[in-house]
Amino acid sequence: MILVGADFLATNFIVDNELPPLLKKASKDGTVILPLILKPCRFTRDKSLSVFQAINPPDAPLSGMEEHGRETVYDSAAVRVEALCIPKAK
Question: What's the domain range around 17?
Answer without folding.
Answer: 2-85
